[in-house]
């Protein structure tokens, strides 16, 4: 089907051992290899830096005890206004919750609590003595009414897959888990509107919708564990944002419980409703600080009949920008992903996995383009025309189009396998930032230069240097860059070069220090790099309006003192 | 290009005298014909009902003086907490605004004030003595700082094209017009992000973008006059929402001035930014009640290379629903409009304009479908395939595809000319509502039955009856129905049959009493039909958080007393 363009030829990928794409997003694929451990001079620790995320690695870290957050951050003090939990409180909760299994108390069963106290990246660990798993919005309301009366602090928890420590307690906050509220309430195939409990797992919602020829407008790596309520309360971004927009546009309504137990039933199913303040918007991205989302209604797009995936090599970032403009123009309405990976990321993946490069050569930049449309022939024709254009004009140097699903999945691995590949040498300093496209890649270049000048970069072979390299990839279609510094060991010199330099760099470009991961505990004290004092003051007012006692998810999100 | 399907043939439209589509949306086309005046037993008045909107008709109503809102609604009292404007206040404003023309004071020039005091539908008229036209955000800040100190009430005003009396004073509030803040600040062709002043006229922004191969993600009838800041502050819906989503998804940032003069500079240009509460969302749709939007940043889609328009006849609403599902499936990503018009609307348009019907027969339902895509051949092929399907399965009874731009414009008139056609007999009772698709048209049927049973319907010929008919049309793709009751004269019997019946009907279906027009002054006291007491109480808290003195756009939006 492909035509050659100029002197270049387009190859069809012939990749061995294609595995299911669903697998590559499963949590089990995220483990750090044994080799990573061997190469690590200083073992992964939770105390290096507040902005450091260890590579998600349950199987590795399971062998080590996670340090308590309060020990890592001794400056953070328990708010003395909050009451201490008593046996009477626990008895009260047992009385208001319909099922005995809805109350998990440390004095009854300490082991089950651990999973709720420790976050997914095993960096934060709280000391909660009580987890409550309400089954209805009324039960959530009764819980919060009581907590409010007693001044007991609360952490709402969904799938606990966040990367910034937002969903686990810091001290002894009560965990309210939404895991027992996991029913689809309704789906309308004509309008595409889904109404469901907050505790429905994203993948379950997506599967339910796929059977009905629709998809959830959000997709992300943790889909097998994360809850849709958590997605909404953290305003998750992910892989489909380029095409379907943010949750602020697709979520039509929320059901939420305010800290005083008031139930806000705003589960609208209408695309248009201009009747006063759009309250749900305040809850989207509020990270559990103003109430607990117990249900959502969301507009779901139809499932695309055809999905195509292409992978390209380019010689410079200015060519990448040209390709992006052409893709937006020629692929227009079917463009569903435009992912950038720099050459070094591909080297790391190649070295770590021993897989052959998808193209004959490795280029300074690679992009992965996906289209999703209603007509396979049309989409393929558009993609071919785009390819001829960008190759004819020498915007891309080489490219390959996946011919079937398994080839597409293999190509996607060169993008989605990067977090794992980076962790191969020991660990990674990770930043999830938004940068205006004009300077999208400059952050990586500037950072790389910084480390090279400091003589800290050893590449993949020189084991005497801490830094393997400085790499960047990301959802370029959304201006969302993942700056990663893979290291052999955690090193104070490296940390000092990174912070606050990265945040200052972002601030100068009016970027965002947290594009999609949120603030949680990890970035509370860095938010001023992206939002000014006025915005923060208004945020504090909003917080106080909804949660005057401050019992919801304390110690996180934004600093409550100016 | 078209293939016949079954026993039906598809005709190409041959419509005479095609006029430019731009014209059909211009304000000048909205005048009520002389015949409408002659047939009107009781002249259009402003006192009939708070929910009644006269058909926009500057040239008709210009001959009549608009009654003051306070005379029409004597129960609404001026809030005694607000100060009275003094000559010293005016002198102060003259001192802080850079240009003498920025201050329009009644004692200097009363005539210019009239246009700012009277709303576009000439139903509401305030008694403001002062209009301020700041040129910068700093001037807006100085104005509000002073008003706040002096407790002077303020009405922000954009293009003053609203339909619910939200943009004009009720009493003596100071009008702050954004008309002198009308510059494009920046546009990035790679990301498609436009940053501009709030006072930029929507059509100007769209023209600017079209020259750069993009479009504004919003389009509506008043585009020639309305301001983008007003669009954002009223969360305008319009014609492109089906395709590009709501402003909550496309607006990336706002610059706004709070009632105390604080400038919130939240003009983000990033698609992803999860750093605290998304404050701009509170401003979108707040209708000037919490501050003044002075600038916006917005994500603009690329202009489509190809636009196709088709018009169909269908025999029942259940067939319409089937066609909608098929359109979503087969046209998918290129579907940009799915507009419903019932048969009677087409009769009214036919009678009022004497134009021949687009199809051989008039059907109980007609739909207008528009596609916008990047490849004309592909889009046409999709449309043809869709047509063969829906005609083969007898979902649609007949259809026609426009062959060029002027034919498309002629077809669009059968949808966009309906407000004018309804007003042809005198006036129209209008409701802009959202209804779940399952019962989308039932409201019209139920309402029609009600009037027929009451013996009030005279059709287009029986001049002894007030009601011409009960008709419905709307943006079906967005569940947005326009219920219209064209009448020969305004009649208390008609009003009593309509209200509160329509609102109660909507409330039972969890619809919205204001899909896209907002609340303003007209619907403040009806909002409880769409939002419950809890939501309203939270809204009051939000209002007080941003505007503790209540000086911003008082007497409107939501009732501040429970």
* Overall shape of chain A: globular
By DSSP, the count of extended strands of chain A is 17
Helix tally of chain A equals 21
Subunit organisation of the chains: homodimer
CATH topology call of the largest domain in chain A: Uridine Diphospho-n-acetylenolpyruvylglucosamine Reductase, domain 3
**Strand order in the sheet with the most strands of chain A:** 1-14-11-13-12-16-17-15
Rg measurement of chain A, Å: 24 Å
Unreliable stretches covering 5 or more consecutive residues of chain A: 1-63
Question: What value does the average pLDDT of chain A take?
Answer: 87
Q: How would a textbook summarize the main sheet of chain A?
A: 8 strands, mixed
| Strand content range of chain A | 15-25%
- Summing up helix and strand content along with how strands pair, one would put the structural category of chain A as alpha+beta
The largest interface is: A-B, 93 and 93 residues
Q: Percentage of helical residues of chain A?
A: 25-40%
> In CATH terms, what is the architecture of the largest domain in chain A?
2-Layer Sandwich
- Name the CATH class of the largest domain in chain A: Alpha Beta
Overall tally of domains of chain A: 4
Intertermini distance of chain A = 62 Å
Task: Describe the protein's topology.
Two copies of one chain form a homodimer.
Chain A: E1 11-12, H1 21-24, H2 34-39, H3 58-61, H4 69-72, H5 87-96, E2 103-105, H6 110-117, E3 130-132, H7 137-150, E4 154-157, E5 174-177, E6 184-188, E7 193-197, H8 202-210, H9 228-233, H10 241-244, H11 247-250, E8 251-257, E9 263-266, H12 280-283, E10 292-299, E11 306-314, H13 317-330, E12 335-342, H14 343-353, E13 365-373, H15 376-392, E14 398-401, H16 405-416, H17 418-423, E15 427-434, H18 442-453, E16 471-475, E17 480-487, H19 492-498, H20 501-508, H21 533-546
Parallel strand pairs in A: 1-14, 3-5, 4-5
Antiparallel strand pairs in A: 2-3, 6-7, 7-10, 8-9, 8-10, 11-13, 11-14, 12-13, 12-16, 15-17, 16-17
């Amino acid at each position: 089907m492909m035509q050659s363009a100029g002197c270049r030829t387009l190859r069809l990928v012939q990749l061995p051992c294609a595995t299911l794409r669903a697998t590559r997003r499963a949590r089990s694929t995220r483990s750090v290899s044994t080799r990573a451990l061997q190469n690590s001079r200083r073992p992964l620790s939770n105390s290096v830096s507040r902005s450091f995320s260890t590579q998600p690695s349950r199987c590795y870290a399971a062998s080590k005890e996670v340090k308590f957050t309060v020990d890592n951050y001794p400056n953070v003090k328990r708010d003395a206004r909050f009451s201490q939990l008593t046996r009477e409180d626990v008895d009260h909760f047992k009385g208001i919750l319909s099922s005995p299994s809805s109350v998990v108390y440390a004095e009854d069963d300490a082991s089950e609590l651990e999973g709720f106290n420790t976050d997914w990246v095993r960096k934060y660990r709280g000391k909660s003595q009580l987890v409550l798993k309400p089954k209805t919005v009324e039960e959530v309301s009764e819980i919060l009414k009581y907590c409010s009366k007693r001044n007991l602090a609360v952490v709402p928890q969904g799938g606990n897959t966040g990367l910034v420590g937002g969903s686990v307690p810091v001290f002894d906050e009560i965990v309210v888990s939404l895991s027992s509220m996991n029913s689809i309430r309704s789906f309308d195939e004509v309008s595409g509107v889904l109404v469901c409990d907050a505790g429905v797992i994203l993948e379950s919602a997506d599967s339910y919708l796929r059977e009905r020829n629709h998809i959830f407008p959000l997709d992300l790596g943790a889909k097998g564990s994360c809850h849709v309520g958590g997605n909404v309360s953290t305003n998750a971004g992910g892989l489909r944002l380029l095409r379907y927009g943010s949750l602020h546009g697709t979520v039509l309504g929320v059901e939420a419980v305010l800290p005083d137990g008031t139930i806000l039933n705003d589960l609208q199913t209408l695309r248009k409703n201009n009747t006063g303040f759009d309250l749900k918007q305040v809850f989207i991205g509020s990270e559990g600080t103003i109430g607990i989302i117990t249900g959502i209604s969301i507009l779901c797009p139809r499932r695309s009949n055809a999905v195509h995936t292409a992978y390209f090599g380019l010689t410079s970032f200015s060519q990448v920008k040209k390709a992006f403009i052409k893709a937006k123009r020629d692929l227009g309405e079917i463009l569903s992903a435009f992912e950038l990976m720099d050459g070094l990321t591909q080297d790391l993946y190649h070295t770590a996995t021993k897989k052959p490069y998808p193209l004959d050569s490795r280029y300074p930049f690679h992009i992965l383009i996906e289209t999703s449309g209603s007509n396979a022939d049309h989409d393929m024709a558009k993609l071919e025309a785009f390819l001829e254009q960008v190759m004819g004009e020498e915007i891309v140097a080489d490219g390959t189009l996946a011919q079937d699903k398994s080839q597409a999945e293999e190509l996607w691995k060169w993008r989605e396998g990067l977090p794992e590949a980076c962790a191969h040498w020991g660990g990674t300093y990770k930043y999830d930032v938004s940068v205006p496209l004009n300077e999208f890649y400059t952050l990586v270049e500037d950072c790389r230069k910084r480390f090279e000048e400091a003589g800290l970069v050893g590449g993949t072979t020189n084991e005497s240097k801490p830094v393997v390299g400085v790499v960047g990839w990301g959802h370029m279609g959304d201006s969302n860059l993942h700056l990663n510094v893979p290291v052999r060991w955690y090193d104070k010199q490296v940390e000092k070069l990174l912070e606050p330099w990265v945040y200052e760099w972002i601030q100068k470009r009016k970027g965002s220090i947290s594009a999609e991961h949120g603030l949680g505990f990890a970035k509370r004290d860095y938010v001023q790099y992206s939002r000014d004092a006025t915005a923060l003051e208004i945020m504090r007012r909003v917080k106080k309006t909804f949660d005057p006692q401050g019992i919801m998810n304390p110690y996180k999100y934004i600093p409550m003192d100016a």
